[in-house]
Amino acid sequence: MLEIFQSSFLLQASLSLCVILIAIYAYFKRSFSYWNRRGVPSLNPSVPFGNFTKLRSNIEDYSKFYKKLHGKKIGGLYKFNKPILLLRDPEIIKNVLVKDFDLFYSRGIFVNEEKEPLVGNLFLLNGPKWKNLRAKLTPTFTSGKIKMMFPTLVQIGKELQKCLKISADNEDAMEVKDILSRYNTDIIASCAFGIQCNSLENPNTEFRVWGKKFFSPDFQFIIKSILIIIIPFLRKYLRISLVSKNVSKYFRNMVKNTVEYRENNNVQRNDFMQLLIQLKNKTLGATEEDPLLKIPDSSITALKSNSPFDCLQNSEVTMDVIAAQAFVFFIGGFETSSTTITFCLYELALNPDIQETVQIEIDSVLKKYYGDITYEANVVQLTLVFLQLSKTLRKYPPAPVITRQCTQTTKLTGTDIVVEKGTAVHVPVLQIHHDPKYYLKPEKFDPERFSEEEKNKRRHFTFLPFGEGPRLCIGMRFGLMQTKVGVISILSNYTVQVSAKTSIPLKIDPNSLILSPEGGMWLKITNRINK
């Protein structure tokens, strides 16, 4: 009798499981017909991941999508059951990022700054909160304010030179990406948090260790993230945060202690933290308008009466708002600037003739200032360094994909396609930067690629290392400055060469969110003989 019962139970369980699996399969198949039903060219997805080969999207996937959709302006993809619209045409990209910005202002990332204050930052916020905060923060990123911080960058650049000296004296191959990450960490710690980190001297400083923890999510976080992608409404119940409680506590306490110490002891420094404190206390004076960071008039005009930005209210800059901005400044600069310098050095090591030309310019300009790296030399006169960085950002954009989310069902300008509210929109920056249609011989590190003549020929919205439109990276100017100081600090004293450990051709880490070399970057740093 027991055996009959057990057999019956197993049969029922098996049938139930089959029904569930069939229902799931049917659900995905129905979801995967989304783009076909709308007449959008799409690629065949697979249950359950859709078009992506792994849990997290990677560079190889986007390269495959871009090639398979050759000749198409747009294409439909799926991440699990979630539809994604991939944009390939520069004019449509312009419409989404600029002209129709009020319909695509969101990054599509759910945040709740009341539960986790650090996510209430300029990168993640949307709607009126974002626009209000952008308006408040723009004065802190003008050329005049950034110039005040230049001496700090130069000093840390000198520490970078010292850090490289032992390896240069021994002519050893070294992993430069880690050292450059420490260089940028020290800059951000000083300028954004107002603390002396000294990670160039000690790689295991507390600040750097806690920063790394943010980039190492645990298994529970990954599983929750997957569930939220598949079943979005679960985010209300899973209480998932982009920042762990311990990391949040550390950074918020650090900011709180720094602000209170400065206010109680009347301490002032030339850094972003001081400017944020002035914003909090409403003592930040009037500043010149910075045209580089100005939101385009066309986008302002587009924010009409039905726009969500009409409910803009004046919000206060609290301690948590300061912490959130300092934190995103750290996250945004932790890898982007260091990888840009890394890739730049790699290309110069492969092209010693170009490197020598750049060094001659550096020597000539610094000689005018008695060997010192000055703001005038860095920003105005060192044109070849800027050209090398532009070429690097073209070939190796730190953020390989720009993401947006449709906030109101609309017809996509330039097409007959209706994009529904909530649909994700992706711009494959890396693939556009490597499209021979826009860049002849895209793998070549061409010295003339960014001459004024060539730039005038290039189609707009085919160079997007910092994004475009009103959500153009607000820290672009500062990021370029710290990157230039790093390159100048190295090339003024040292020559960069490939070594037996250098990966040629270069392998990109397919799973990194920020474009990064797989296995690090091994180069040989030697003292300049002609110095």
From TrEMBL:
Heme binds at C473. GO terms for cellular component: endoplasmic reticulum membrane. InterPro entries: Cyt_P450, Cyt_P450_CS, Cyt_P450_E_grp-II, Cyt_P450_sf, Insect_CytP450_Detox. The chain crosses the membrane at residues 6-28. Its main location: endoplasmic reticulum. This is Cytochrome P450. Keywords: Endoplasmic reticulum, Heme, Iron, Membrane, Metal-binding, Microsome, Monooxygenase, Oxidoreductase, Transmembrane, Transmembrane helix. Belongs to the cytochrome P450 family. It is found in: Endoplasmic reticulum membrane; Microsome membrane. GO terms for molecular function: heme binding; iron ion binding; monooxygenase activity; oxidoreductase activity, acting on paired donors, with incorporation or reduction of molecular oxygen. Its cofactor is heme. SUPFAM superfamilies: Cytochrome P450. It is a peripheral membrane protein.
